[in-house]
């Protein structure tokens, strides 16, 4: 038996060790680690942003969370606000935000941004420049909402304190989502959708407006949260219409509802119809809605049929009527159809005449169905002013509640 080891056998373990080391080194080099991390103690979490104009400069208001008041711990002062706002101006939005570093004690972190409030003066000048920064910023997500300050500055909107949610940006965010879901007189617009509508020929964007009800100065004080009826409240009111990226006018409540029905974005809503043959009203709650726009080309001219299907419930009856009869329910359905058709037709005609901005997306549907004819239209917004739009509503009253007769009938029998 030979006790002499072969040289190749002695070299093999060394080769394996070197090979393993090189492989591990290659794998480790692919791991970036937390190169872009920010410790919580080093950042200020921005939840709201306001954009105003002061002369030719942008005025940026940033609402940040005050962690000492939001965190549940002993010793926190109840008189201190849950948020802190900082303001600065600059020729561009990112310059103004950079200037805030001399005021804000920590690095401004935008990954939790909830609301961007645009001043009406900025909206009139055009929102494309501020949007360019918001779209390029790697720290921002795209799920925050845009709204337009109405009869107030964006900075004033962000300073109104709410009792229910001490962080105003969160208060506006949840209020907008709730109203959008149950009332249909508002609309939530995030960054992706806004950019898509701005880049779509034949669809102009519309952003929900917000205003201050009450005393603005009281709304900035923590005392505003100590009243049963607060001296200042934030209220969503109408929508701002844009032609391209510039604000051109406001929609009222009925116009916003008509817009949401046409663009198939009504989740739930409430309306009323007059009692047939007597005084009083009947409240109808829409629980489902579905809309389809049918474009047509008639003698070279675009025309549109808007078919709206609605499932609703009867929520309230203020007159003597027998809901157990099918003919009565049919009559109520027809009354509801007629009212909605008339309201939507009038609203569309008003927007065509006064604003000339296709916020409904008729041009976009026409473009998809008739691309050749679409490219022959030089200015769609101008053509939109004269197009024919016919609205057809088919509502079904599915449920009438747990009683058949109105309370008046029951109490008088």
From TrEMBL:
Subcellular location: Membrane
Organism the protein comes from: Paenibacillus plantarum
Signal peptide positions (record): none
Protein name per the record: Ger(X)C family spore germination protein
Membrane topology annotation: Lipid-anchor
Domain Spore germination protein N-terminal: 37-212
Keywords for this protein: Germination, Lipoprotein, Membrane, Palmitate, Signal
Protein family membership: Belongs to the GerABKC lipoprotein family.
Cross-referenced PROSITE patterns: PROKAR_LIPOPROTEIN
